Amino acid sequence: MEISVLQHPVADHETPCLILGVVEGKPPTSLLQRLDEALDGVIGRAADCREFRGETGRTLLVHGSRGLACERLLLVGLGKEQELSAESLRRAAALAAATVRERRLESCSLALAHLNSRLPVAVVTEAWVEGLQLADYRFERYLAADPGRPAPLARLTLLADSDSTATAVRQSALRSQAVCQGVFLARDLVNEPGNIKSPAFLAERATQLAAENDLECTILDRGALEREGFGALLGVAQGSLREPRLIQLNYRGATDEQPVILIGKGVVFDSGGISLKPGENMDQMKMDMAGAATVFGTLLTTALLRLPVNLTGLVPAVENMPSGNALRPGDILTSLSGKTIEVLNTDAEGRLILADALSYAQRFAPREVIDVATLTGACVIALGHHAAALLGNHQGLLRRLRLAGEVCGERLWPLPLWKEYGQQLKSEIADLKNIGGRPAGTITAAAFLEHFARDFRWAHLDIAGTAWQEKAADYRPVGATGFGVRLLVTYLSRLCGGTEKRPDS
Ligand code: BES
Ligand code: MN
Ligand code: ZN
Fold first, then answer.
1. What percent of the chain stands above pLDDT 90?
2. Closest C-alpha to ligand 1, atom 14
């Protein structure tokens, strides 16, 4: 999507569709009054008969008139003023995007002028631009070209009402584009089918990403992993014909500073292994590398925004398959940390590869470590699809992450990591077992990881419920959501003194 910013009187602006947000229950702004007059009172009549009064989720599309330069005017309800937030604007933008796509319009303009809201221009612009772009994403790589299918929005013009806002709008639009590029990379990778995305494929994409964005990329192949002693990761990988990789991406935005480390679960397909999953919905387990995709997307956006921070991404990439050479229930693995693990269920593979990645992270003397993983079905049961679970060993880190989630609309919800839960992981014959029984499945998975995150600040995000959507909703189309990229970018921007504010300030 090509985005441009203009400072131009809204009524004289030529466009196939002019989009304008309308707050419910407020007297019409001067702009809305002018438009209404030019349209012979149609907006007022729509309000009188309760067709449209700016309610959340409602739109009014009217055709232009001789007094107006636009071909159509699309009014989008923003709801009541006290409910106005970045998230409500992103949702309104998504509704606008759907309407524009349905009408098969390839360009439109957005009037940011005269919004008269208490939200800063940057927040409003970013919310609109992100909402429009995120909602307009489709994964169509494997569909034959079809002229009957609506095309994505090609051009968006943002109309600012003064020189100073035009500058702010321009900056915010650039930022949003960088953010959406990261989200789209993540979505593309997650939507990609399992037959295409081997661990080697992910490594290849990381190498390419590094070359294009001035990142450093290091790949450990199986030989290197064996030499280093990644016993837990190799145990998971051994059932698959496709060899594992450990992918490392470095971004240097600051000089002498310890890196923040992001670890992403990269199971390119999780069949469960010998503890095979049931057939129903098994296809969705191509999304089991969504954590890895989030890490790649975050590194891309961080590099595009040139954030002043040092960031390292670590992605253990494997495939979990049953075979004559696969890991068996009952096997004991020696992890990179030296701790031994009794594998009682080969479907609890994510924590095994993350354990070794966490141990490896120690070598970078990290400032803090955040892992992102589609780790447990129990997380979907606990929180559904509206929040990721948040656990870790440092309250300050968890608090800052949660706040970043509120700001960007990717919500996190905490679960306790009391030491009592650790009892469930005691093994008779090894240091740990890899499952803790049915109670508190998301917590015991995190309690397992905690054994490998002893020496640094650590947070764990379980995105099993938020990485994938079976049905489109708001600005998240069906399939991969790219959850976590906006969260981590928001988190990192704020960490290095970014200007983002709370959604309601
Ligand atoms: N990748 C799955 C978790 C998952 C489930 C992600 C649903 C997304 C949607 C993970 O590897 C897994 O299989 N976990 C098991 C753990 C159990 C065997 C302790 C689970 O949750 O059933
Ligand atoms: Mn599994
Ligand atoms: Zn898995």
1. 92
2. 376
Sign of the alpha-carbon torsion through 170, 173, 178, 181: negative
pLDDT for res 114:
58
Tell me how far apart the alpha carbons of residues 432 and 181 are, in angstroms, rounded to a whole number: 40
Ligand that lies nearest to the alpha carbon of residue 343, given by its number in the listed order: 1
- pLDDT tens track for 72-121: 999 999 999 999 999 999 999 999 999 999 999 999 999 986 556 788 99
Instruction: Tell whether 502 is covered by a domain.
Output: no
Q: Look at residue 500 and tell me if it is in a domain.
A: no
Tell me phi and psi for residue 235, to 5 degrees.
Answer: -60, -45
Tokens of 185: 């990379």
**Domains of the chain: total:** 2
pTM above 0.85, yes or no: yes
CA atoms within 13 A on the CB side of 301: 29
In a domain, 78, yes or no: yes
Residues with CB under 6 Å of ligand 1 are 270, 288, 345, 347-350, 374-378, 380, 435, 441, 464
Q: Determine which residue's CA is closest to atom 13 belonging to ligand 1.
A: 347
Active-site residue, 494 included: no
**Candidate list 58, 351, 433, 476, residue with the active-site label:** 351
